[in-house]
Amino acid sequence: MSIRICSSPLHPSFALRPRAQIAARSLRIVARAENDSSRSKTSDQQQLNLSVLRFTFGIPGLDESYLPRWIGYGFGSLLLLNHLSASGPTSESQLRSEALGLSLAAFSIALPYIGKLLKGSEVEQRTLPEDGEQVFVISPNIGESLKEELAWATYVLLRNTSTVAVLISVQGELCVRGYWNCPGQMSKDQLNDWFKRKVDEIGLADVKETLYFPQYAGSSLSWDILPDGTRSLFVQPLVENTNESQKVDGFLMVASTAGYAYSDKDRAWIGAIAEKFRG
């Protein structure tokens, strides 16, 4: 906006205006530019929030990946009921239609199994750790708006994936949620300091590449913060590419008690959430 104003001396009428009018118009232009920028940021933030939402019915215990199976059972049962309740003779066209409908219902029933077969491995169901503390800790030095974003991100990760523990680090400040192998009798400030020490011991703040362990079975490193029974571990670094180097702003780590818990689609979705906190 200011560069555009500087080019306006090409118009003589602008040069003849009083200085007070020019200053007032400049203030209006600057104020309008700030408002437009604020609205643009808000719109981009809302669009980004919607881009990482996933479809779910929100019914506890319902696995939406098996929805085609239940649809197949339902329509197949209706076709059989319609055939058995028919009073008159069945025509050939109706038999062909019913055979096609039953074939589609059988395909819907088998679709979840086909999907797992194409993935090359069967995804296990997560189980909540018997030992471990359920915590929700956010560093006190984080601003209110960022706290809301972190709380929202950790919630959707626990709700929409097989995750039982999630940790997000942004500029050295932490948000920890879920089940963790941590001391029980500690305040939130003490837990925050304890997790920071553990993160420094593991060296997660220096990770520059995405790490995924679909069959995690422990490590020689001090990963004792993970809940007992952890089978899958995924770490997404927050890397900002500069001109000649890479700057690490933090990381996002999720853990699950199910093996092969994070498919390619899940990892891409988690990466989209991590992108919100980069830079």
Automatic annotation (TrEMBL):
Q: Which GO terms describe its cellular component?
A: chloroplast
The biological processes this protein is annotated with in GO are: cytochrome b6f complex assembly
**Where are the annotated coiled coils located?**
none
Record-linked InterPro entries: CCB2, CCB2/CCB4
Per its record, how is this protein called by name? Protein COFACTOR ASSEMBLY OF COMPLEX C SUBUNIT B CCB2, chloroplastic
Which lineage is the organism of this entry classified under, starting from the top rank? Eukaryota, Viridiplantae, Streptophyta, Embryophyta, Tracheophyta
